[in-house]
Amino acid sequence: MRAMKVLSLGVAMFAGLVAGPVMAAQCGNTSAGFSQWVDAFKSEAAAKGVSKSVLDRAFANVTYNTATIRADRGQHSFKLSFDQFMQKRGGATIISRGKTMKRNNAALFAQLEKTYGVPAGPLIAIWGMETGFGSFMGNQHTLSAVATLSYDCRRSEYFTEQLYAALQLVGKGSLSTSAKGAAHGEIGQTQFLPLNVVRYGVDADRDGRVDLVGSRADALASTANFLKGHGWVRGAGYQPGQPSYAAIQGWNAASVYQQAIAHIGQSIDGQ
Asked: pTM surpassing 0.90?
């Protein structure tokens, strides 16, 4: 594989866009004020330098997404025991299929480990856990999901930052305004939130854009780059208490999810 490169997505411009909190666009916990919030947000985003063209295109089909709110309030699987979680997520199947994926993509995984220091196992574990190896990446309108959570009062500040990142991706042509993904606005085969695409997205296949949906190489390289950026130590162990486990903790805040990634990865790597 040719040398990989991280596609610059204008992080400096992004930093300027998100400087300072959005004040006038008031959050809400029902759909009642969403359209007014959109108008206020668009005005503030324009004042921060987002082009009218990008805003008009990005918000053309944005609606309040009740499925997103329902998913945000109902993340019960993270409260399961490890064994229950593994059963619910099909851990044994992910391990079995993951070993095949490792064999069938040996050159790709070897290059990823050489470049980022991350072995195949945890990457395959994330890939399998998040989307069944790209088989289902979600059916929710991405921009509606992120905008809804930006408006929603529970985590408005966090998702407003994600929304500005999504607008940057729209402006760069890296995110279609009709894109669909997971309920919280996650994108692609390993489910990146927009800001993580900006920060860690990699054009591994060197086609000039980061494509986490259609490019297996881009999705897995971006995931490896994320883990490296969260403290992955080349050659170190990644089980609980070992140096690289902290990077897995950076991927997902739920301890049972972290344990599952470590276990599945170890089973695939044969360590």
From this structure: no
